[in-house]
Design a protein that fits this description.
The protein is an alpha/beta fold and 270 residues long. 34% of the residues lie in helices and 21% in strands.
Length: 270
């Protein structure tokens, strides 16, 4: 199995999948490898990428909260975050960092309160504002992630503050970040990319030693550590570069393709 993150890893800076990398993925599939996308992104982003690049197969989305069948656009399994837990964690985090704004990711939409001012052009059709922070906790839609954002505090500082300052509420959730500016991502306790990928592999009879993984951000560390072979991208976060012994070149230089071509031979035509 080839397990790859998307942003900063498989995709270039402009969000596209290069023809070289696409050819390398197809050569690996022809050789018998299964390609699994393992991303912080929700299914709606994977759908757009799949349409543009002709991808099929399985994706582990929302940092492990969802397993998604790309071809049928179906959520196969989910591990959601209870809204009551999200509210407790947000309250504790706001006590430590009062300027932080909050949003709830559902996989289909982002519900956000007024203090959450992060806007992504690719999500303009999925954004749903609510009138106040209190209104955020009234949703009855399953939640995949609580998002905390600040325009003044970087993601590393947010992550450290959350882990150190949230107290007991932090034992109910998983904190991480994927490099978004000032963006902290919070999932149900125990939900990680590696945990979900491990369950997926167990169902397929694939051992961790048979998995090659690629990533660039702190939320990828669990996968890069769990997989038999993990590669940090040349553009990876310093903590990832320090923790992962095997490196490839950057996403802009088709680092995933470099490794796959070495393992599976020259790419075939797309």
């Amino acid at each position: 199995m080839i397990a790859s993150d998307l942003d900063g890893t498989l995709l270039r800076r402009d969000g596209t999948l290069s023809s070289r990398t696409l050819r390398a993925l197809r050569s690996a599939e022809s050789a018998g490898a299964e390609i699994v996308l393992v991303t912080a992104r929700p299914p709606r982003f994977v759908d757009r990428l799949a349409e543009a690049a002709g991808l099929t197969g399985t994706a582990v989305c929302s940092n492990g909260a969802l397993v998604y069948d790309i071809g049928t656009r179906t959520v196969v399994s989910s591990r959601v975050l209870a809204v009551t837990v999200a509210q407790r964690v947000a309250t504790a985090l706001a006590a430590v960092l009062p300027e932080v704004g909050f949003a709830l990711e559902t996989g289909n939409q982002i519900l956000y309160e007024p203090a959450y001012r992060l806007r992504l052009s690719e999500d303009i059709d999925a954004e749903l504002p609510v009138g106040s922070l209190a209104d955020l906790w009234l949703t009855d839609v399953p939640v995949t992630k609580l998002l905390a954002w600040s325009d003044r505090i970087d993601a590393d500082t947010l992550l450290a503050a959350a882990r150190q300052g949230v107290g007991l509420a932090g034992s109910e959730v998983q904190f991480t970040h994927s490099g978004g500016h000032g963006l902290l991502e919070i999932s149900a306790f125990g939900v990680t990319k590696a945990g979900t990928l491990a369950e997926l592999c167990a169902g397929r009879g694939i051992d961790a030693t048979e998995v090659i993984a690629f990533g660039d951000m702190p939320n990828d560390l669990t996968v890069l550590d769990w997989a038999g072979t993990g590669y940090a991208m040349g553009n990876a976060h310093p903590a990832v570069l320090a923790a992962v012994p095997s490196h490839t070149v950057s996403n802009e230089e088709d680092g995933v393709a470099h490794v796959l071509e070495r393992l599976f031979g020259p790419p075939t035509a797309p």
